[in-house]
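Example record

Each entry pairs one chain with its bound ligand, zinc ion.
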Amino acid sequence: MAGFDLVVRGGTVITASDRGRYDIGVQDGRIAALGLDLEPGTREIDAESLWVLPGGIDSHVHLDQPQPPGIVQADDFLTGTRAAAAGGNTTVMPFVAQIKGESLRQAVTAYHAKAAGKCYVDVSFHLIISDPTATVLGQELPALVHDGYTSFKVFMTYDDLVLNDRELLEVMEVARREQALMMVHAEGYDSIKFLTERLERSGKTAPYFHAESRPDIVEREATHRAISHGELLDTPLMIVHVSSRAAMEQIRWAQARGLKVYAETCPQYIALTAKDLEGLNMEGARYVCSPPPRDEDSQKAIWEGIEQGVFSTFSSDHAPYFYEGSEGKQNPKARTSFRWVPNGIPGVQTRLPILFSEGVSKGRISPETFVALTSTNHARMYGLYPRKGTIAIGADADLALWDPLREETITQSKMLHGSDYTPYEGMRVKGWPVTTIVRGQVVFADGELKGEPGFGQHLARELSPYAKPGRPS
Ligand code: URP
Ligand code: ZN
Ligand code: ZN
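Structure tokens for the complex follow.
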């Protein structure tokens, strides 16, 4: 009689701190044994030539988020989570975006309805606070944190989302009190608005000018302001999608002073630059995201930040739109200025291969650091550890089997996302996820989806240990 539901046999198992050749025995969706020559499983996977890593956790994705008229997001929970599975991910963390005037609790309920029956991998929601009313801050947010929505994002820009400094401070006070982790989009609203209007007045409306409308100084200023507010109130902060040397240096400075400031960066800041936004006609619109890709010096600085531990997490900031069609990024009738091009690019399927190839295969980071940046640190940061983010007895059997030598070209025909393009078209990568296992079930293998929509579950989370206040002594 078989002892395990599944045995993943003979692979090189790599966690954030360790590596070794082991069999992994899975029972009831959890890792039940790690060892050599385990007894047979009902199902066996030969991993002799493969690396077995904790499944990727992407703690920054946008799925099925409401958009202004004339724009739709290209992924719902079905297409977004199947692309995640194809890219070696076992958990994604999308945002519940509160629309101004809306109750936060109602927004959460609506997102659960959108996700129901559609997810291939596990999901866990962050909140976006766009309307910090007394009810939201005093009642809804504390109750939702208690229910396991233990992190939320605030924006320092975007017309529909921006919070002013007073509002930021009020939200920070609640974050501190509830020990929820506050994620900050740090770009300065007024500077961007000023620069945008000045560019438009001089006819500079092509997609490239998106990058000029939000230069690194604007990101640096907002990052410093957020850090200062956080220090004032003793509130730990996670600065998300850091793109530039200027912002990275602010964060490194804050960390050197002992402040609880954490940071995330993304593939677009190591694999793209503002030059990609140039293109003929509307071509550059494919790469419009915020903050925008920068220059080679900022790419270098992002690598410094990765190597020096300034960044805890490497996420996709998957925010998928179409390129073609009336709702697409290129529609010249609707996108008369860069200002009207939807901000965001798809990336949930390509995040892991890009970091693996540019980081591990090129010798910049160790496989263990790769695991930390793409899985373990996400689980620790957002209250999912040790159930998620590691390979250990008792943990969910969330695994990504990698062929470290396989070379692939990233191209749209391999993408399972809803967008009609990938910004990384033609990029050669070395290292590719071949099998994705969620709670012991194979959800993607041999280039094909194997899982069922609806298998993915929503995860309520513990408080983040990183959100505990505490000034440096
Ligand atoms: O351009 C981006 N990043 N769009 C997604 C929304 C956000 O700010 O994360
Ligand atoms: Zn953002
Ligand atoms: Zn985002």
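The two ends are 59 Å apart (CA to CA).
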